[in-house]
Amino acid sequence: MREDRINKLSTYLSRKIKALRSLIVASKDRLIFVAIFIVIAIPVIVLLSHSYAQLQASSLFGYKEHAFSVLQNLNKNITSDLAIEDRRSYADYRFIRSVPVFGGEEITMSELADFPLRSHYVGLVGHFQLDPSGNLSTPVLPDGVLESIPMVDRDKRLAIRNKISQILNTSGFSAISSPSVMTPTSSSTEKNLDSTRKNDSKLIDQIYKQDLDISGSNKKKKTSKSRVEQITKTGDFAFGVESTKLDTTGLLVRLINTESTHSMEAEIDFFQAIVDSNYIIFHRTVRRGADVFIQGFIVDARIYLTNLVKNEIEKYKGVTKGTQQDPLVLAFIHKKQTFVAFGERNNITTELLSEPLQAPLSDITFKMYTTQKAPGGEFVLFIGLLMLTVIAIGLISIYHVTQSRMKLAAKRQDFVSAITHELKTPLTAIKMYAELLQNSWVVNEEKKQKYYGQIASEADRLSRLIQNVLNLSKLDGNRWNVQLRMEKPKRVLDDFVSTYSKNVEKQGFELTVSSDTDADNISLMIDRDAIMQILMNLVDNSLKFSKNADYKMINVELRIKETDMYLAVRDYGPGIPPSEMKKVFQEFYRVENEMTRQTSGTGIGLSMVKKLCTLCNMSIELENANPGLRTKIHFPPLSI
Description:
Blueprint: H1 2-86, E1 96-101, E2 104-109, E3 124-130, E4 136-137, H2 154-169, H3 187-216, E5 226-230, H4 233-241, E6 244-246, E7 252-254, E8 265-269, E9 272-275, E10 279-288, E11 291-300, H5 301-308, H6 310-321, E12 328-334, E13 337-342, E14 350-356, E15 365-370, H7 377-438, H8 445-476, E16 485-487, H9 489-506, E17 510-515, E18 524-526, H10 528-545, E19 553-561, E20 564-570, H11 594-597, H12 605-615, E21 619-624, E22 629-634
Parallel strand pairs: 17-19
Antiparallel strand pairs: 1-2, 3-4, 3-11, 5-8, 6-7, 8-10, 9-10, 10-11, 12-13, 12-15, 14-15, 16-18, 19-20, 20-22, 21-22
Helix pairs in contact: 1-7, 7-8, 8-12, 9-10, 10-12
């Protein structure tokens, strides 16, 4: 008893060690396949990333090219608009001016004096001029001795002048008050006038210096450019008349320094710009001798900039009406604040362009963004994931095939060991009994007959074992010759019982047979040899696994249920755990429990039964009978 326990423990420990070794080998194999996957995945990921980057760069190149085209058109429009104002005469900034006619000159109203205002600048607020004394005037409103001229819409014209004054006061220019009322009748008034002239001269110098400081930051590498315009006497008179006022005594007082105006040329600088949060002030400096004037015009920044990109905006409007959203965003930035923006700015992904506008608007930065990722990015991502998935599935499949092959090889090795043991056992018994009889060591005739019977039994056992191996080889090699004939299953069952019942009885079991009455005369297309081989294997299994059962009985049944006819072999052994039901049909598989480990066998019986059933158009079913196991072999339906 003690030796049996030791043997069981030894067998149990050896199997555990073997399982541990298999687990270690499997872990190593998994690590190898994971390493292979990583080695393959890294270059694939790098390749896909490079492809995605190339695709994105190609897409962004088209957007950037479009952005530069938009910027080029913007600068072209700015240059064209400003060229018109740069060519404008300094005299146009008065209410009246002289124009050449046939035979001389005549004085007429300036084109800037028209009301309502008309200009190529969309969003124009108005034109203005600051004279050397700092007085503000505008072409839409006559000044000086002409201010009494009756004007239509004078209030509206005056509102324009006041708005210009307000914008100048809040946009970098010094505050400019309305012209003072001068009374030259007293010495104090003359002193005040002289003081006013000196202060105004300082003021205009300050404004001019401020103008240079503001525009200088954008022109550090550029030299100042100007043009010269000839002054006629009539033109000089027309330009200066609005600087003449009547004092309280009715005398004309010239508010500009006429004595210093000896030159008959006017030097006119090109326009510069001052930008604030709402307006753009274009201004230029005009020098007439010692007199310095500031001339310019003011535009609403948002309206003007919107007009510059109106063609691009029309495209956006067309897209907005449809179901698609334009992937581009335009923005004008000044001092980190956005003047105007078009497009959906909530989904900005990439900045395409950030460049200052053409001078003198270089304080404004034009930016263009895209809200769209590189087209085809989802496709590249899908291809990448698909490739990695296919590689992973392939490697996992190879791993499982490798593992199954390794397990099958291990099972075959176990089968070789088992079959060797199974062959050795009957051969040893036959040799032992043969030697006893050969040496005449057995005198009793009854014992001789018993030994002869043992030799025959072991020889039958050996023959069945060899036949099983041969049959399995035929099945695996598709060499089993299926011979379907019209036969009665009841007759096949009777023949099996007559030939195999003695073997069952020798092992101490009772073989019982029962069948339905209707089954006696039914004939089916079956393979007789296959049925005999199936019954032999099932009964052998029952004998092996039920040797410790309380009931030493094997039941074979032939039943009919509707159109289903089946053979059932039932024993009273321990049965099979539900989790093992499907595994027992695998080649060389044996149920892993302590009882099975002590049971002889090769693990090919049920596997061969399953293959024979498949070849003969039959099916096999296992069910626990509690106690015992019932195995059903279903014949083809009776209707066939």
